[in-house]
């Protein structure tokens, strides 16, 4: 717990900590440090690791997670918490929170009913707001983000979680920094088909090395108002690029690429690591992946159990012998084996294919997000410990976020996104025309390219209010004003994109179709860039606006300098990976293609 936060961290009462009881030798959850027998429990400066000996009941009498064997915490006659004695010993009452009255004296709650009611109302509103804030930390469906709600002020507790986190070096494929405040964040969530863990060897292909079975690219917008969760089918036929896999001795092994294979072979096959999957996603979408998080079969069981189960809805009864899912129609709270069976089933819904299973998995993740909003998991130290412990043991992440501190920083940033502005979608695909028996899919270029372009341009799939209107207005102003005649535009063109001969094709188009005769092909740029840019001097602004109009450049592509150009100095146009062909506008679409699959994280649906 941060001592400078005046004893409060993210809405968790500083009294809600685990402290050592010298009489019993056990750690106890201290509900209130303003009263009680000082001889029975010692105060500590931060939370401690609790013993996990058995169920503890919550105030409604339900099971609340891994606590000790002492009797439950209940409500006294005045509404204050009461803990019964250990193993039948006489209970002792923990007094209510001490408050300062209007005249400056101190007293306990209940001494002034009217004031107490007002205080309780304010406290209730504040607690509700805190719960909402914590719930947002779960947005994105990445279970590591629950760590944000955990106070890790105790060194032992911090070390415990840090030592349990599995990390993998992805070399140059990832981002060494946790995130950039002025850029979108792209995180790849990989679910492998590796059958590790007790009982999982029975789920077919028990010798699997772990392929990229479930894949969600989570794109968080630059202004943190929205996010897009893009599912990539495992059976998508694509090209896997060459990739370098870091070895234990510090060297790197070059794994040759493969053409026309399933996407799931980007992990495990030929010794490929998660960095290869990240590179493959970049090759398909044009989006650089900053970080990855990977889970296996066992993680699904443990995490669903740690959150107390995930609410699902079935439009019909399901009995799938392959996944072992056997549930009647209606609503269910599933965890453990049932949760794993639910996300694995592919023969029970829709057309009984992998694309339908993807939608089921999206529903599962969205439900977990809503679970964090409605339950008190993130406000309970006991549940938080249990969940965080399961998270760090279940996750494998890249070294760029390979610590609790880094995960927490990332989670706080992603937690700014409201769940109603999280949209799940799937890469638009078509049945593979080369197959008689349809088993794989290929990209649907018109729709897929448009969707990828929206994500590269950081355009939301949901209607949201931008937090950076001023910045966008400034960019738009660059496009407004007088435009030079085409004959007066002077520009050097470099190719920093993926289209071979793109610079020459652009110069030919500018000269023959647009009348920009003072355009020159400067061949390849020093390095590849993601987005096309136009650099110009202040006294070339009219030329820049004219060229931007011809090529369909957005305001964000314009990079004005600070010093005027001299003589015949030309502007510099560098084509990026968003360049598709000469004459094709660079600006991406503002609306998603029609008929693409979409689902909102804030809405519950029944699996059909």
Keywords summarizing the entry:
single chain; Alpha-Beta Plaits; five-stranded mixed β-sheet; 12 helices; alpha+beta; 608 residues; Aminopeptidase
Q: What is the structure about, briefly put?
A:
With 608 residues, this protein is of the alpha+beta class. It is built from twelve helices and 32 strands. Helices cover 25% and strands 23% of the residues.
Topology:
Layout: E1 17-21, E2 26-30, E3 54-57, E4 63-67, E5 73-75, E6 81-83, E7 92-93, E8 98-100, E9 106-108, H1 113-136, H2 155-164, E10 166-168, E11 185-192, E12 212-220, E13 227-231, E14 237-240, E15 243-246, E16 252-255, E17 258-262, H3 274-285, E18 291-295, H4 297-306, E19 310-314, E20 318-320, E21 325-327, E22 330-334, H5 337-344, H6 354-374, H7 381-394, E23 396-398, H8 404-414, E24 422-426, E25 429-431, E26 441-443, H9 445-456, H10 469-477, E27 490-495, H11 502-514, E28 518-524, E29 533-536, H12 541-551, E30 558-560, E31 571-575, E32 598-600
Parallel strand pairs: 10-23, 11-18, 13-24, 27-28, 27-31, 29-30
Antiparallel strand pairs: 1-2, 3-4, 5-6, 6-7, 8-9, 11-12, 12-13, 14-17, 15-16, 18-23, 19-22, 20-21, 24-32, 25-26, 29-31
CATH architecture of the largest domain: 3-Layer(aba) Sandwich
Number of domains: 3
The neighbouring-strand order within the major sheet is: 10-23-18-11-12-13-24-32
- Rg (C-alpha, Å): 28 Å
What structural class results from the helix and strand content? alpha+beta
Strand residue percentage: 15-25%
Q: Name the overall outline.
A: globular
Mean pLDDT reading: 75
For CATH, the homologous superfamily of the largest domain is named as LCP protein
Helix fraction?
Answer: 25-40%
């Amino acid at each position: 717990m941060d001592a400078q936060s005046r004893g409060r961290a993210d809405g968790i009462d500083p009294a809600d900590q685990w402290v050592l009881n010298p009489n019993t030798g056990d750690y106890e959850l201290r509900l209130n440090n303003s009263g009680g027998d000082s001889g029975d429990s010692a105060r500590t400066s931060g939370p401690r690791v609790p013993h996990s000996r058995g169920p503890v009941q919550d105030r409604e009498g339900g099971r609340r997670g891994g606590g000790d064997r002492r009797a439950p915490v209940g409500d006294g006659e005045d509404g204050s918490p009461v803990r019964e004695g250990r193993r039948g010993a006489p209970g002792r009452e923990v007094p209510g929170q001490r408050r300062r009255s209007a005249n400056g004296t101190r007293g306990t709650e209940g001494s002034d009913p009217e004031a107490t009611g007002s205080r309780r109302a304010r406290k209730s509103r504040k607690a509700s707001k805190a719960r909402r804030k914590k719930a947002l930390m779960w947005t994105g469906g990445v279970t590591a983000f629950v760590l944000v709600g955990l106070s890790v002020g105790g060194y032992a507790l911090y070390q415990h979680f840090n030592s349990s986190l599995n990390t993998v070096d992805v070399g140059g494929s990832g981002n060494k920094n946790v995130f950039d405040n002025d850029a979108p964040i792209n995180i790849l969530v990989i679910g492998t088909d590796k059958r590790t863990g007790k009982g999982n060897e029975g789920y077919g292909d028990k010798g699997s090395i772990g392929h990229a079975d479930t894949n969600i690219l989570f794109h968080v917008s630059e202004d943190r108002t929205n996010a897009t969760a893009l599912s990539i089918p495992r059976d998508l036929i694509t090209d896997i690029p060459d990739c370098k896999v870091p070895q234990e001795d510090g060297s790197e092994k070059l794994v040759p690429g493969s053409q026309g294979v399933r996407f799931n072979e980007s992990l495990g096959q030929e010794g490929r690591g998660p960095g290869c999957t990240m590179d493959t996603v970049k090759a398909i979408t044009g989006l650089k992946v900053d970080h990855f998080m990977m889970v296996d079969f066992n993680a699904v069981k443990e995490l669903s159990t740690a959150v107390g189960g995930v609410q699902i809805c079935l439009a019909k009864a399901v009995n799938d012998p392959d996944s072992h899912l056997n549930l009647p129609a209606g609503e269910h709270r599933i965890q453990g084996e049932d949760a794993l069976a639910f996300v694995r089933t592919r023969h029970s819904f829709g057309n009984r294919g992998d694309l339908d299973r993807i939608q089921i998995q999206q529903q599962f993740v969205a439900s977990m997000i809503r679970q964090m909003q409605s339950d008190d998991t993130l406000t309970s130290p006991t549940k938080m410990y249990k969940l965080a412990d399961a998270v760090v043991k279940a996750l494998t992440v890249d070294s760029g976020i390979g610590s609790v501190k880094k995960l927490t920083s990332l989670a706080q940033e992603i937690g700014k996104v409201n769940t109603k502005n999280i949209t799940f979608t799937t890469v638009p695909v078509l049945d593979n025309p080369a197959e008689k028996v349809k088993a794989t899919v290929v990209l649907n270029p018109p729709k897929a390219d448009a969707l990828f372009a929206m994500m590269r341009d950081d355009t939301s799939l949901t209607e949201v209010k931008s937090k950076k209107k001023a910045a966008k207005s400034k960019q738009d102003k660059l496009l407004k004003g007088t435009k030079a005649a085409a004959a007066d535009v002077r520009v050097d063109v470099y190719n920093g994109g993926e289209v071979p001969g793109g610079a020459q094709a652009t110069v030919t188009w500018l000269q023959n179709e647009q009348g920009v005769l003072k355009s020159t092909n400067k061949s390849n740029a020093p390095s590849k860039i993601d987005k096309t840019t136009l650099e110009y001097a202040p006294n070339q602004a009219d030329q820049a606006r004219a060229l931007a109009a011809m090529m369909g450049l957005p305001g964000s592509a314009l990079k004005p300098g600070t010093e005027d150009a001299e003589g015949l100095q030309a502007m510099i146009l560098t084509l990026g990976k968003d360049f598709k062909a000469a004459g094709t506008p660079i600006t991406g679409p503002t609306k998603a293609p029609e008929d693409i699959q979409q689902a909102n994280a804030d809405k519950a649906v029944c699996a059909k």
